[in-house]
Design goal:
The complex is a heterodimer.
Chain A lengths: L1 H28 L4 H6 L5 H10 L6 H13 L13 H36 L4 H15 L2 H15 L24 H27 L2 H8 L4 H38 L5 H11 L2 H29 L7
Helix pairs in contact in A: 1-12, 5-6, 5-8, 5-10, 5-11, 5-12, 6-8, 7-8, 7-10, 8-10, 9-10, 10-11, 10-12, 11-12
Chain B lengths: L1 E10 L4 E10 L4 E5 L6 H9 L6 E10 L2 E2 L5 H6 L5 E4 L13 H12 L5 H11 L5 H4 L9 H14 L4 E5 L7 H18 L2 E6 L2 H7 L2 E6 L2 E7 H6 L4 H8 L48 E3 L5 E3 L11
Parallel strand pairs in B: 3-8, 3-9, 6-7, 7-8
Antiparallel strand pairs in B: 1-2, 1-4, 4-5, 9-10, 10-12, 11-12
The chains are: A mainly alpha, B alpha/beta.
The structure holds adenosine-5'-diphosphate (ADP) and magnesium ion (MG).
The site of adenosine-5'-diphosphate has 15 residues of chain B, from helix 1.
């Protein structure tokens, strides 16, 4: 077990180092002098020299990388060119919105996708199954921003149940009640992913139901609900859990769109704006943070998989 | 004890897979069910268990155990109604155990259902001892992938015994095992049958193991029992040409000739079974009247019968 964790963690760190080199190289892959790209044509020579110096562009490349990676390790991702504040601060400002959005979205995905997938599998072939599977197919195939716009149209503009944009911090007036600002965006973000998890849960339940060991379980005369929960679901979840890592990756790119549609002050919107502003240190910092998160989540998925499936240890 | 009467199993809205199968099994007795692959042996056992796959159903006949009819009851319904129990050891030990549950849990959950008063862990250990798994207490916490095929099949037998069955079905329990392991598992089944007095339906495609395992034999062809007899008379004087053909396929210990005889042709697929005798197209003795109409039941002595117009033994009487 200990060796398994070590090996997995080592692999994650190696991936992170490789990713950080790519992220670092990004600023040097921009055609032309990045300093002029960032500052625009009207920059004075002093401004250019100051930025060049601040970015350390006069040093050799390897040296630059080591300095950048070393500072990143100490929590220093450089300065935002637009805001003239530390990148970590820019990220921190969007973090509350994005983290809450991600948590609520994951909640919808797990709370709807898995149980409804189980229901569809148990009722395989009935109108319940056909209805649910059809709905899942529909949701999985429409783009997030379109679901978002529809939700705004119906529940914000039409019924007025939820606000359509923005998100005041839960630490401001309104407290946790401010979370209602995140209901529609999280639903929009969850819809296609919950639909995928639903279909995956259903398909893998039906796959497992055909296994010989499920027949063995039935032969014992244990009640059918126990056969479903203990034998079918337990094994079917192996496939579903490993899909959560990928779901997270999909969430990140869809979150950028959703935050823009709902005008949420999150990291996704920060990225979009930074790209438009050519605020490269912020872009680099955000991508590095996202890669770290992605690796951590997948590491957790791998480790939880080990607990669910005793065979992993030997492989 | 177990009584199967004219059992018919069909694909839903489709052809019959079993076409009127009848036999009985007494406590402590082993009945061997023999036949080529695809003849319907596994479907017979699943029908007796109440575990037919969704595409198939019992469309005629009855199964009763100790006088109670259990034809259409699934195992959990049999538990709830407290009727007699049939347990089964499946063909494939590598896939028949749940890979993510410990052996002890998999036996224990059967104990909990059938032996509510027992302590599951104690009873599970007792069962592992009974099927001669060394170091039983330790193996309770093993996962299936940590055990060999032979050990897994013993665990399967332990699970079946945990159900306190009156009838144990063993569906080609050793086909997937090495020869030496095969012999041990067969010996174990024989021994448990004698010791616990359970009736055993022993399914095999190998007539060779029948003689050492069973008291009585039923030969199945295309979903039909073509011959039933005690082991001795069957080997001495088979009535049905199909049975004789199967015996001709057995390796001869006296001869060095590695080439085995085979019955020419192939068994008919379900749904494409010809009228009359299903074996007629492959039978050297077949005549025109074999190809249509009902088949006569011929007898060759006490408890020995076959369905054939031209049985091999002249003494046979209609
Ligand atoms: N799930 C199924 N659906 C339809 N036909 C089946 C199914 N399983 C088995 N059969 C058919 O039932 C017949 C008997 O199969 P089986 O009992 O497995 O034979 P055996 O165990 O003697 O090898 C075969 O002809 C097979 O094609
Ligand atoms: Mg079979």
């Amino acid at each position: 077990m200990g060796r398994y964790v070590l090996r997995r963690t080592g692999a994650a760190i190696a991936t992170l180092i490789a990713a950080s080199i790519v992220i670092f190289a990004f600023i040097h892959l921009i055609p032309g002098d990045p300093v002029y790209v960032m500052l625009g044509d009207g920059a004075t020579p002093e401004q250019v020299a100051r930025l060049r110096n601040r970015l350390g562009l006069d040093e050799p490349l390897v040296f630059q990388y080591l300095i950048w990676a070393g500072s990143a390790l100490q929590g220093d991702l450089g300065q935002s060119i637009f805001f003239e504040t530390p990148v970590t601060q820019v990220i921190a400002e969007g973090a509350e919105t994005s983290i809450l959005l991600a948590v609520i979205t994951m909640f919808w995905i797990v709370a709807f996708g898995v149980p409804v997938g189980i229901l569809a599998a148990i009722r395989q072939g009935t109108w319940i199954d056909q209805g649910l599977s059809g709905l899942a197919m529909l949701l999985a195939s429409v783009p997030t921003f379109w679901v978002g716009l529809y939700l705004i149209l119906i529940f914000a503009a039409g019924l007025g149940w939820f606000p359509s944009s923005g998100f005041p911090s839960v630490f401001d007036d309104g407290g946790l009640y401010n979370l209602r600002y995140l209901i529609l965006p999280s639903l929009a973000l969850a819809a296609p992913n919950a639909a995928l998890i639903l279909r995956l849960t259903r398909a893998s339940m039906l796959d497992v139901a055909r296994e010989d060991y499920v027949r063995t379980a039935r032969a014992k005369g244990i009640p059918p609900y126990r056969v479903v929960l203990r034998h079918i679901l337990r094994n079917a979840l192996l496939a579903v859990v490993s899909a959560f890592g990928f779901t997270f990756a999909a969430l990140i790119s869809e979150a950028v769109v959703t935050e823009t549609v709902f005008a949420l002050p999150g990291i996704g919107r920060t990225v979009v704006q930074s790209i438009l502003r050519r605020d490269y240190p912020v872009i680099q910092g955000v991508i590095l943070v996202i890669v770290c998160l992605y690796l951590i989540i997948n590491l957790l998925v791998d480790l939880s998989y080990r607990f669910l499936d005793p065979r992993v240890e030997l492989e | 004890m177990l009584n199967v009467d004219n059992l018919v199993v069909s694909l839903r809205n489709g052809p019959q897979i079993l076409r009127g199968v009848s036999f009985g099994i007494e406590p402590g007795e082993i009945l061997a069910l023999v036949g080529e692959s695809g003849s319907g042996k596994s479907m017979t056992s699943l029908a007796l268990m109440g575990l037919l796959p969704p595409a198939l159903a019992i469309t005629g006949g009855t199964v009763s155990l100790g006088g109670t009819e259990i034809t259409h009851l699934a195992p959990h319904q049999r538990v709830r109604r407290n009727c007699g129990k049939v347990a089964m050891v499946f063909q494939e030990p590598m896939t028949s155990l749940n890979p993510v549950l410990r052996i002890g849990e998999q036996i224990g959950e059967a104990v909990r259902v059938h032996d509510p008063d027992a302590v599951p862990a104690d009873r599970a250990k007792e069962l592992l001892d009974m099927v001669r798994i060394p170091d039983a207490a330790h193996q309770l916490s093993a996962y299936p992938h940590e055990l060999s095929g032979g050990m897994r099949q013993r665990v399967m037998i332990a699970i079946a015994l945990a159900c306190r069955p009156q009838i144990l079905i063993a569906d080609e329990p050793t086909t997937a095992l090495d020869v030496t392991v095969q012999r041990q598992v067969l010996g174990l089944i024989r021994d448990l049958c004698d010791r616990l007095g359970v009736g055993v339906l022993f399914i095999t495609h190998d007539l060779g193991v029948v003689a050492q395992m069973a008291e009585r034999v039923a030969v199945m062809y295309a979903g039909m029992l073509v011959e039933r007899a005690d082991v001795g008379p069957l080997f001495r004087a088979p009535l049905h040409p199909y049975t004789a053909g199967l015996m001709a396929c057995l390796p001869d210990p006296e001869s060095d000739d590695p080439l085995l005889a085979t019955i020419p042709g192939a068994a008919p697929r379900a749904g494409a079974v010809p009228d009359g005798c299903p074996f007629a197209p492959r039978c050297v003795r077949a005549a025109s009247r074999c190809r249509s109409g009902a088949l006569p039941l011929v007898h060759g002595g006490e408890g020995h019968s076959a369905r054939c117009h031209f049985p091999l033994t002249a003494a046979a009487s209609a």
